[in-house]
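Listing S7. Sequence submitted for prediction.
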Amino acid sequence: MPNLSVNERVQKYRNSLRASGLRPLQIWVPDTRMAGFNAECDRQSRLIAEAECKDTKLDQFMDNALSDTDGWTE
């Protein structure tokens, strides 16, 4: 087996994925290591919890949505 450079091996691997019908996709996600990330998660969670407590119709909506999933896994 010839000695391939890292770039050649990566390109070969990517070509095999493309030949399998896949395509590369780059996504950006929040950096969980960033200072303040946990505090922002807590803040947003509290806002959601407060909004849910004020929404008297939410439980019924969620129950209706859950009952509408019958047959999804069949």
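Caption to Listing S7: primary sequence and predicted structure tokens for the chain studied. The CA atoms of residues 16 and 22 lie 9 Å apart. The longest helix spans residues 37-54.
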